[in-house]
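Researcher: I'm comparing several assemblies side by side, and this is the next one on my list. It has 634 residues spread over two chains. Same procedure as the others: predict the full complex and return the structure.
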Amino acid sequence: MTLPENGSTHGYVQNRVDLALIADMIQPNARVLDVGCGDGQFLALLARTKNVDGRGIELSQEGVNACVTRGLSVVQGDADADLRDYPQDAFDYVILSQTIQATRNPREVLLQMQRIGRHCIVSFPNFGNWRVRLQLLWTGRMPVTRTLGHAWYDTPNIHLCTVRDFVSLCEEVGFHIDDAISVTGNRARRVGRPGTLDNLMAEDAVLLMSRKS
Amino acid sequence: MRPAPEKAFDHLWREPDVQPGAEEERRAMSETRDAQTEPDDGAGRVKALSAVTTFGPETPLALDCGVSLSPFTIAYETYGTLNADKSNVVLICHALTLDQHVASRHPITGKPGGWWAEMVGPGLPIDTDRYFIVCQNVIGGCMGTTGPKDIDPKTGKPYGLSFPVITIGDMVRAQAMLLDRLGIRDIFCVIGGSMGGMQVLQWAAAYPERVFSAIPIATAARHSAQNIAFHEVGRQAIMADPEWRGGAYLAENTSPAKGLAVARMAAHITYLSETALHRKFGRNLQNRDKVTYGFDADFQIESYLRYQGSTFVDRFDANSYLYITRAMDYFDLAADYGGVLANAFKGTSTRFCVVAFSSDWLFPPSDNRQIVHALNAAAANVSFVEIETDKGHDAFLLDEPEMFATLKGFIGAAAERRGLK
């Protein structure tokens, strides 16, 4: 898999430390939709280890073709436009990995995910991380970090948020947060519900959510 | 002057007509199956079993237009070996002017290897060592399956325009009858491009329980106004030929070759792309240094199209062309399901792989994507691949390594799910 060296904003990074923990969140034999599935590395892992019925959506045609070549069911599309095709409760899990910050309408994307999936898993770079805060404070310029590798003028990340921002949007749209993973450097740990410290320390956050009944 | 054939257009040289004498021979045997083994495909790769089977008065074909067609004959070919539990059947549906010779030497043109030589064969995506492959000439066709050029038993004359109008649904119903006769219920994979893709969609909608996986390529769930328009131009060219004789040219011993050639020329342009035409021909002149200030084929593209038209008439029946283009025009799968395409696939467990080509303007990626949207709405298992190419609609018949790679992946994964070795 080829990805930009300075961190990916779309698809899966090789050796991503949170993938195993995300896989742990998923029940065997589940119906899974991976939105922004890249070349299908993670879907293939889920199919192999959890026997999931996996589907994918991927923006790049190159990624889609790679997925289909390895036997995965993947269509070309994007989170903003193509989630609305799926019927309600079509999946047990909808995964949106490192993509929400690049969508045009994150709130609508979350609502669509909530509609089509019983559970949703969202991962995103945390803009509240202390390095990001310090960079802006000390240099007075837009932060460029390991997880946010683009200059302001060429970034696809048009809707960056902090962990706290995301949690509050989840509550607003009626999501219950079931679990969370905080990723810092090469360490990832499950934190249950992300708190103030995670908002400061996490470089990436992964949240498992379900519809509030 | 004939232009030198180039690989990209090579497949268009070959195509069918019927063998003299085969007609009467076929009529003589009702309800019998005549099978003969051909030594190979002409390219030494795979054995083809070529056969015809006739359905008598007790098994008519109920057509959408209300007519019961009887008797009727289906000409088909098979490749590979049917496994013990009959679970390895691949049904290939052919496009408008192609036929059952998907991977065998063409009886009229002599072209070896078949029209999908790079797709069907040992070790290829449709692996003749693994699967039992069936390819049938469609109803209304002119390569052995009953069509307008055949004798109407009621009159003793060729049907001509008294042949009933057929639909994609009728083609698929006839194919199902043949599979029933062969004792085959389940299709592991049904695949086809263009009109073949329409049949694939029809199969998946009409017989979802029989179809494990489906690969519609460069197709649409309904024929567009633009495509109907192109077909109408072709039909009018045929009907404007005085030799057409109201469709009775066979009885009157004439041939609307000029009209059919023009129809083919017009259609042929739609199969290519502006980029490919420019790459191949540009404004190059045909064996001359300057234009002749006349209406000779000054340009290579003119010469090429004339050649395409003239060879087509040797292998295709003009009335068949009218009937089969009409079947495509009438195709609108959603219309049969309350106007909602997703309803055609409701509850389906078929695995789909939709394939489109970036430069195809006859069945553009957007048409194919509509199928994908409907399948998603039906929560179907679907993959969608768009192949980047400048070869236009005909790309599905050409050497497109990315298409072969993705289809090999899809078919292989489906075979694993189906438990095929």
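Model: For your comparison table: Helices of chain A lie at 19-25, 41-50, 61-69, 79-82, 106-116, 130-139, 163-172, 196-201.
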